[in-house]
Design goal:
It is built from seven helices and three strands; from the N terminus they run E-H-H-E-E-H-H-H-H-H. A three-stranded mixed sheet has the order 1-2-3.
């Protein structure tokens, strides 16, 4: 049975950092509730680990391409622990290992940066520059201008959807620009990866 991976994000928090107490503080700070920020963080991580898999495979999921260099073998759930709560991200298994610093490991060194950026996005809205900054913070592979532009174009509607749902009182939707089907609205269940993985090559 494959064990869970617990990631502590932001080991050291200074007085100005986001904490659960500050999340529920006065409305003058305009800080969104922890559940909303945590959902935004999950959406961001879920998008990036999927794009990382596409990059390492040389093409998108299920695509037939002569440029394909790797294959997905299902996925496993990785549980992410942050100072404001926990969330689960579906991380694709790849057939061939590629030496790199995985995005989920990069998150260990984020401190409060990503959560503070998401709080800022919640208050003032999303912009291409802010989306690009979030990607650059977490992306660990080569990032050309064309790839960055493509990632920004894909991530922007996901964050806009998160903002729309959060402000309408529905912060627990999935990270998709269009409303998900009723069968996919549930969050990832925290079960061992050995029972959650579908090992089919695509």
């Amino acid at each position: 049975m494959r064990p869970f991976f617990i990631i502590q994000i932001g080991d050291a928090w200074n007085a100005a950092s986001i904490t659960p107490a500050s999340m529920s503080a006065s409305t003058s700070s305009s800080t969104p509730p922890p559940s909303i920020l945590l959902e935004g963080f999950r959406c961001l991580m879920q998008f990036l680990v999927g794009e990382e898999a596409d990059y390492l495979c040389g093409t998108t999921l299920h695509a037939r391409s002569p440029e394909r260099t790797n294959y997905r073998l299902g996925y496993y759930l990785r549980k992410l622990r942050t100072p404001i709560g926990r969330c689960s991200v579906r991380v694709p298994h790849l057939l061939y290992f590629f030496p790199r610093v995985p995005i989920v490991k990069r998150a260990r060194r984020l401190s409060a940066g990503i959560l503070e950026d998401l709080a800022h996005v919640y208050n003032v809205g999303i912009t291409p520059d802010k989306t690009a900054a979030l990607i650059k913070t977490l992306w660990t592979l080569d990032l050309s201008d064309d790839l960055l532009a493509a990632l920004v174009e894909k991530l922007t509607p996901i964050l806009e959807h998160w903002l729309s749902d959060s402000r309408s009182g529905c912060p627990d939707r999935l990270d998709k620009p269009s409303p998900p089907s009723s069968s996919s609205q549930a969050q990832a269940v925290e079960t061992p990866a050995s029972t959650a993985t579908a090992f089919s090559v695509y």
